[in-house]
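User: Just a sanity check before I run the rest of the batch. Below are the structure tokens for the first item. I only need the designed sequence back.
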């Protein structure tokens, strides 16, 4: 007689019951199928089990045998060995292992791969953390440097509130040359004519005098006032422009301004004082 597994039965008798059928391992001695058992993984957990048959040891003796014992606790290997030797003292018993140990060994390759993958992942995470820390440190240092030199009253990122600690801020300021007002001269854009308002009146309106610190806003205000004065003289569209020249090394300003009311135009020139030339 013989016992087959489910894969054997599905392959050769998919639509019928294999019980009672015969197999011929020896042409002269057919064996009868008396049972069907489940599929067993003979090699490892990833490899599907092959078709298998189970024959009685007395009918088909072999030079080795595998014995599986189901127990409720561990540590019974000595008792199993003693029972085997009670039947045959000359039998050599070896390779006694629990099912948990065999499953553990069958997963050694997967466990090694998982361990290596985890190690490389941890190393990559460490490298990423170090790189991110370096980049953030560089950005914070650069931002702190820029804000210390360019910003006033701007909070420095990364510092945050720390009671009992203070931040010293140094703001270096480099000043250039300071310009002063030179001589003021008013002329007409037309060399053959003179400005309609008296030149002395236009000079009085101009808010800067010789030796005063030059101010762009005051020059613009003066030109607006000139437009109003020309409006009183009947000019509806006065045009005002000016230009600046600098005398080195006296640093006095020469300013040229032109008033162009329709057909007439006056010029305003500021030169360095004669004492500075």
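Assistant: Here's the designed sequence for the first item:
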């Amino acid at each position: 007689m013989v016992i087959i597994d489910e894969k054997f039965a599905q392959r050769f008798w998919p639509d019928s019951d294999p019980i009672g059928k015969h197999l011929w391992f020896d042409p002269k001695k057919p064996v009868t199928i008396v049972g069907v058992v489940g599929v067993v993984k003979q090699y490892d957990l990833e490899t599907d089990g092959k078709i298998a048959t189970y024959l009685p040891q007395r009918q088909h003796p072999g030079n080795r045998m595998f014995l599986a014992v189901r127990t409720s606790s561990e540590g019974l290997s000595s008792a199993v060995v003693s029972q085997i030797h009670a039947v045959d003292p000359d039998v050599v018993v070896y390779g006694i292992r629990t099912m948990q140990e065999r499953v553990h060994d069958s997963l050694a390759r997967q466990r090694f791969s998982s361990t290596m993958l985890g190690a490389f992942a941890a190393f990559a995470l460490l490298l990423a953390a170090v790189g991110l820390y370096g980049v953030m440190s560089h950005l914070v240092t650069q931002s702190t440097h820029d804000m210390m030199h360019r910003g006033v009253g701007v909070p420095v990122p990364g510092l945050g509130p720390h009671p009992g600690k203070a931040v010293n801020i140094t703001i270096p300021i480099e000043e250039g040359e300071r310009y002063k007002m030179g001589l003021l001269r008013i002329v007409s854009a037309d060399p053959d004519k003179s400005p309609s308002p008296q030149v002395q009146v236009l000079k009085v309106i101009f808010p800067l005098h010789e030796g005063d610190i030059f101010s762009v806003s005051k020059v613009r205000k003066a030109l607006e006032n000139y437009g109003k004065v020309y409006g009183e003289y009947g000019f509806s569209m006065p045009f005002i422009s000016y230009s600046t020249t600098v005398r080195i090394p006296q640093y006095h300003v020469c300013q040229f301004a032109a008033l162009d009311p329709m057909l007439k135009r006056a010029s305003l020139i500021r030169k360095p004082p004669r004492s500075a030339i």
